[in-house]
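HUMAN: Spend a minute on the protein record below and explain its fold to me.
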Amino acid sequence: MKYEIKNQPFTVLTLHMEQGESIKCQSGAMAWMTPGIQMETRTGGLGGMFKKALVGESLALNHYTASQAGELTLAKHSPGDILIFNIGEMPIIAQKTSFLAATESVNMDIYLQRRAATGFFGGEGFLMQKYSGSGYAWLEIDGSVQERVLAAGEQIIVDSGYVAAMEATCSMDIQTVKGLTNVVLGGEGLFNTVVTGPGKVWLQTMPVNALAMNLYQYMPHPSN
């Protein structure tokens, strides 16, 4: 399946679909399409709905199948980029709510950090998503992306929300920020995320929650 990613930072993904090709995507992602592409909404059963609710995804996925050759364009929900991953080459761990679209042979499941009790309070949350199987996945990145390659045992310490994705060979942990003054006045929160190699890590420059907080201060607020 051919594709184009364009119009950054208000990014869209255009899929050039041949007859019989099919993809699944996040609910509400379709921006426009040509005739001859059919949509079917599926929930994946109660178990699948429960997992999606835990990671903040919509409870149903839309499946688009081309009855004739055509184009399907999907739009990102916030400013940023869209990355494609060949899941058959390497399973990927990604931030929750990053899923945009995937070929039908990609499996999506919950990824639990090793220190779940600590991770629950960390910026990444203790739940992420794991993509495995075969085929391709297109994931949403907030802002622009920087790719880092970590050697075995090499670590990078990342502020809350800046880890977009990592190869499944990497591991993730939560590190508490030391020092009361650092916590109270440093503006970095209580926890950092520590990613350990080997493998690639994709870092995003503008997590949507940080963007929302920065915009919030400029918004009018009702007086008490």
In short: The chain has one domain: 2-211. The chain has a mean pLDDT of 83. Helices lie at 45-54, 116-119, 180-185, 208-216.
